Every structure is written in structure tokens, then in C-alpha cells.
Amino acid sequence: MPAALRRKSLLACLLAAAFLGGCGSDDPAPREAASTTTTTKAQTDEHGDSEPSEPTSSEDREKIVAVLGKMEAAINDGDADRLCSDVYAFAGDSTRSDCVKLFGTVLEQSEARAKITLRGVKRKGDRATVSVSNSGLTGGGSSSRTFRFIKRDDDWRVLFD
């Protein structure tokens, strides 16, 4: 199996573990955590380095929250086609078809719920690192996840590469 396909398969498994681990409410709108959504000037990136983050406009924040809402709704409906069409942007040799293949089976077989809350945005130009939590897990648990977003034609999408 090519390395890129292995990496994408791992991404599908991580999504399943992070977002499909249990049941939650039917509320399709993602929440925004009031105390943790302010973009700071210096946040730690995934490699542990501090790097300045550009301010995120309220319009960009709203667009990111809307994408997270689409993600939550598609996951809760078990709709990989909508997830891949409305949420993801594709880079490199990745395609919408690859996305649907990866998430399709996982979403169809799951009765789990996602309840996504925006925790923070670190933006640099047309890219952003968005941290979220999912409180739709069995037993009231929660998981955290970070997504890489890209802005294309004034719309934000989760990067699928």
C-alpha cells in the first residue's frame, strides 16, 4: 500500500476514534467555547515551537465554525459524500473520491454522534490550524483534534492531503 494511502487510512481511523466514539445530542450546530476562542499572538504549534498567529477576523471565524457545523452534520448523518464535498479541500494527488472511500464505510457503519466545539484558531495567511473538541463520546467523555484549514476563493475548508 502506498505511503500516501496508508496516511489517509490512518486519518480515517483517527477521525473515527476522535469523532465516532459514542452518542451525543442531535444538535447540528457546533459550539464555540467562549473562553478559549481568542486567537493569541503566540501559540505553540504541533512541533512545540511558538510562532506568531495573525488575527482571525470574526468573518473568518464564522466561516470556520460553519465548516465545522457541516462536518458535524455530515458525520451525524453518516454522509461521507457530503462530508467530502462540503468540508474538505484536496491537495496533491488527493481527490474527493479518495475521501469518500476512506470515510464512507466508517460513517455508514457508525451510529455515533459528533458534538464539535471550536477551541481555537491559529491563522497564518490563507492557512489555519483549528483545534476542536468533540463531546459526543459515550459516557460523557470528550476528545480533542486539530485540523489544518486552507482558504480558497474566500471559503475555508479542511485540508485533505
Describe it.
- It is a single chain.
- This protein is α/β, with parallel strands linked by helices and 161 residues long.
- The chain has a single domain, classed as Nuclear Transport Factor 2, Chain: A, CATH 3.10.450.
- Helix content is 36%, strand content 27%.
- Strands 1-5-6-7-8-4 form a six-stranded mixed beta sheet. Strands 2-3 form a two-stranded antiparallel ribbon.
- A hairpin with an 8-residue loop joins strand 6 and strand 7.
- Helix 1 packs parallel to helix 4.
- The longest helix has 20 residues.
- The chain is globular.
- The chain starts with a helix and ends with a strand.
- About 17% of the residues have low confidence.
Overview in brief:
This protein is of the alpha/beta class and 161 residues long.
CATH topology: Nuclear Transport Factor 2, Chain: A
- What is the H-and-E element order? HEEEHHEHEEEE
What is the CATH architecture assignment? Answer: Roll
Note poorly predicted spans: 17-28, 34-49
Oligomer: single chain
In the CATH scheme, the class would be: Alpha Beta
Gyration radius from CA atoms, angstroms: 15 Å
Shape estimate: globular
Overall pLDDT score: 77
